[in-house]
Amino acid sequence: MDEKTRKNITPRAVVLLSGGLDSTTVLAMARNEGFACYCLSFQYGQRQSIELERAKDNSVILGAVDHLVLHIGLDAIGGSALTSEIEVPKGRSFDDMETGVPQTYVPGRNTIFLAYAMAWAEVLGADNIFIGINALDYSGYPDCRPEYINAFEKMANLATKAGTEEKRSLVIHAPLLHMTKGEIILTGISLGVDYATTHSCYDPDREGVACGECDSCRLRLKGFAEAGIKDPVPYKNRVL
Predict the structure, then answer these.
(1) What is the CATH number of the domain that holds 136?
(2) Mean pLDDT across the stretch 120-143?
(3) pLDDT of the residue at 196
(4) Is 234 within the bounds of a domain?
(5) Alpha-carbon torsion 74, 52, 111, 212, what sign?
(6) Which domain holds residue 46?
(7) Which of 142, 151, 221, 225 has the most C-beta neighbours closer than 10 Å?
């Protein structure tokens, strides 16, 4: 394919989609930028599956070309409150969330997810990957920092046929990296995102109702308060 033909084709992007607030916003942003979006989600042994149901719904609502769900067994490794019997922290202050790595950190998760996204992007001929990480409200996760994204992007371009033989550059987009949760929500609403179809809770009940007390729920509720909008999803206990 010559360069002129390539430029006339709608650019493809792999979008990591969890079904949560951030990744759904990123999907809307990628679509708004004119990308043909191929969404990638994971059943990785997490303690609840409602987020995958939300991811499937939102990939359709927001016009993704395809949605692939891969099954990987990170629960066999454990080491996280999201993949084992470790208790999910509840009621932590926002100051506490900025101190240390929490029990909800899943060892290697973003690196594994991005590696799969890199592989699919190469097969699709896509030069772009979108991920919804955030360096402001990131709850202490080491794989949600800008230096991590920069390092993975460099590695990806050294590790693929596209980056070496074909001399193409894979770009990892993290458009939410320096945005507050309130700014993310207002951006999503401006792009038509219905946050009632998203799920963020680490420890929902059997009906999928968010607890309102885990770090993710509290950060989400804080964001809606900052945006001056009521969060449309139900909670067992709305705690700020």
Answers:
(1) 3.40.50.620
(2) 87
(3) 97
(4) no
(5) negative
(6) 9-227
(7) 221
